[in-house]
Specification:
By secondary structure, the chain is an alpha+beta fold. Among the domains are: 232 residues, Rossmann fold (3-Layer(aba) Sandwich), CATH 3.40.50; 95 residues, no CATH class; 96 residues, no CATH class. Helix content is 18%, strand content 29%. The chain has 9 helices and 38 strands. Strands 16, 17, 20, 21, 25, 26, 27, 28, 29, 30 and 31 form an 11-stranded antiparallel beta sheet that branches. A hairpin with a 7-residue loop joins strand 8 and strand 9. The longest helix has 20 residues. The termini are far apart.
Length: 650
């Protein structure tokens, strides 16, 4: 749509980069550029983007700069698992042009839900095609003037839309898909922590970008965090998110097509009927061995062939059964190919084969899923997954019947209810226990990104992190008085689709996951339900804000006591320090603690109720390399968790 010419004057959202300690967050994210695990201080999302290219960490940096007006210490690590395109569906396209969504060399760079509509149709490559693109599941849409081009590079997200020469029909939803985000791994995390150890900046918390699928991944991070504490004297909590349940797994269903001037059909017999094209390439058009073919425009060979095809060469396809009649050369024949699905009774497997066959893994299927199949002749029903690879999904014994069909024929979906997903996640991460260094979140929410201009989904960990940096250390992120977070748990039709700890039984809080919630009596919007570490239930450190206060106290104490290393003390005859000597050390450490924790640093009161450091009176110090022992006692401020009111009627 054309707009009036004019000028604008805007303020670029950015933050000062002269902060540290309780105001600084460290973000670790897999990135496509400069993935050297080097910590860099940035004051804006655009600066992160300029250094590392687009990545999900850019989105967090943008929210953080806009909402908290603070910089981040950003550590870009290599992408270990590429983001991928999955859950594709092109069944809404009745035209002859075939669309594909292709990830770039670095994979998909941010999780998104794609919807592609044809707004102005015609012939691709000839007419002025206009498409409607949504990357937030249809919540918003942007017009794309494809014109006579056959491809469009989606800005930022690492994906390209391709369309073959052919027709598209206005008003149709021609392609939907899900793009998964990139992931890091323990190698990248280890490099990041080594680099953080080598520099001297202190931070309040860390944030890991990319969901953790297993407790093994969480344990790897926890090992690094524990060592950062015990070996490096850095006391910090990291926010992480567990693998999400949405979107529900759906088998991709896509097609590929060719139309050429001359095609010859040859009836050879049961082991070799052939289709030969005079020009072009079956391979370039996406055909592959294992495809099920549908022919139109022929006199004697129209229809869907029963046998899967073998692509013998760029111009020849061979069939294993006697499906064809001699014909041709024939002009204006259209051949559509879809991947085949082979159901096996003996192996209890469904195997995908052919061009654009897709991947069960990318489509979101997992071991233990309850899979529903419909639209087949012999295999409709609900089945339990016992194993998954990209091409093969295996069900419990005795579930399937032999059948070969095209991938577009059935609908195959799977997924867990919110309760099932929470129960499975609770079991998976049960071993990540009794440690306040890590904070695992469950569930996601959407919020408009001023960087990419889409309503994107990100973890509850992000929401809690953004809220906590709006306040001092001791302020809980789940205060109702701070109002809604600005994130949404609802879809475009106002249906609750995300995890809501209030509506869904408070199971996330019970299992010590940070999560989001709504309030029954408003105001409308998403709040942080609870922000919890993996400390034990009976520990004050299970509340993340308490952990941050204690870690801040430990950091101040560490610096103050180290300052007194080398001090010469007056000793008693038995080698212990005199009261006056102890008082000198204690006064300095106590003063350092009080200046930081008992002062009203940000207008929200002192960070603790009280704090003391006491030096041992019994340490013998007239020996080689004497050790002074001290006790740091932190009196946490009380945080109201529940108010129970009794109504008396008289």
């Amino acid at each position: 749509m054309a707009t009036l010419p004019g000028a604008s004057n805007t303020i670029a959202a950015g933050a000062s980069s002269s902060v540290g300690g309780s105001d600084l967050i460290t973000v670790i994210a897999p990135v496509p550029d400069s993935a050297d695990a080097k910590p860099r201080l940035f004051g804006s999302a655009s600066a992160v983007y300029a250094q590392h290219g687009y990545n999900e960490g850019v989105e967090y940096a943008n929210y953080h700069a806009n909402e908290d007006d603070l910089p981040i210490l950003f550590v870009g690590i290599p992408i270990a698992t590429l983001g991928a395109i999955g859950r594709e569906n092109t069944s809404g396209n009745s035209g002859t042009s075939v669309t594909t969504i292709v990830a770039g060399a670095d994979g998909v760079l941010c999780e998104h839900d794609g919807v592609l509509r044809c707004l102005v149709g015609g012939t691709v490559g000839t007419d002025q095609i206009i498409l409607g693109l949504s990357l937030d599941g249809g919540l918003s849409e942007k017009r794309i003037r494809l014109g006579t081009d056959t491809s469009y590079v989606i800005p930022y997200f690492g994906a390209t839309i391709n369309a073959t020469v052919g027709t598209l029909t206005a008003g149709e939803t021609i392609h939907t898909w899900h793009g998964s985000g990139p992931l890091g791994d323990s190698t990248g995390w280890t490099s990041a922590f080594a680099a953080l150890k080598a520099q001297q900046r202190q931070c309040r918390t860390m944030l890991n970008c990319g969901d953790l699928a297993t407790d093994t991944e969480a344990a790897a991070l926890l090992t690094l965090l524990d060592a950062y504490d015990t070996s490096d004297d850095r006391y910090v909590r990291m926010r992480c998110s567990v693998k999400d349940r949405l979107p529900l797994a759906t088998m991709s269903s896509t097609t590929h097509r060719m139309s050429t001037a001359n095609v010859t059909f040859a009836e050879v017999g049961a082991t070799g009927d052939t289709i030969t094209r005079a020009s072009g390439s079956f391979v370039s058009d996406g055909f592959a061995t294992g495809d099920i073919l549908t022919i139109s425009g022929s006199t004697s060979n129209n229809g869907t062939l029963a046998a899967a095809a073998t692509v013998t060469s760029a111009t020849v396809i061979t069939l294993d059964t006697d499906d064809l009649a001699d014909e041709g050369p024939v002009a204006n024949v259209s051949i559509t190919g879809v991947a085949s699905l082979t159901f096996s009774d003996a192996a209890d497997t469904v195997v995908r084969a052919g061009g654009n066959a897709g991947s069960w893994l990318t489509d979101g299927f997992r071991v233990g899923d309850s899979v529903t199949i419909s639209g087949t002749s012999s295999n409709d029903g609900t089945f339990t997954v016992t194993a998954v690879t990209a091409a093969t999904i295996t069900f419990e014994s005795g579930d399937l019947a032999d059948e070969v069909i095209g991938i577009t024929t059935p609908t195959i979906t799977a997924g867990q209810t919110k309760a099932e997903h929470l129960a499975a996640s609770t079991t998976e991460f049960a071993s990540i226990d009794d440690d306040a260094h890590i904070d695992l979140s469950i569930g996601k929410a959407r919020k408009f990104s001023t960087f990419t201009q889409w309503n994107l989904r990100f973890p509850a960990a992000w929401v809690a992190s953004l809220r906590e940096y709006q306040h001092d250390l001791h302020i809980a992120t789940w205060r109702k008085s701070d109002g809604p977070t600005g994130w949404s748990l609802f879809d475009a039709n106002d249906n609750l689709v995300e995890y809501d700890d209030r509506v869904d039984g408070a199971a996330a809080s019970a299992a010590r996951f940070t999560s989001l919630r709504t309030w029954a009596n408003g105001p409308v919007g998403a709040f942080v339900s609870n922000s919890l570490t993996r400390a034990s239930d009976d520990s004050l450190l299970v509340q993340s804000h308490n952990t941050d206060v204690v870690y801040r106290a430990r950091t101040i104490c560490q610096a103050a006591t180290e300052y007194k290393i080398g001090t010469s003390l007056i000793l008693n005859a038995d080698g212990t320090a005199t009261p006056g000597a102890r008082s000198e050390i204690e006064s300095y450490v106590q003063g350092s603690l009080a200046a930081d924790l008992l002062a009203n640093k940000k207008g929200e009161g002192p960070r603790v109720s009280n704090v003391t450091w006491t030096m041992s009176a019994t340490d013998v110090l007239n020996v080689p390399e004497p050790i002074v022992n001290g006790t740091l006692t932190v009196y946490i401020r009380g945080t109201i968790h529940t108010i129970a009111t009794q109504t008396v009627v008289r």
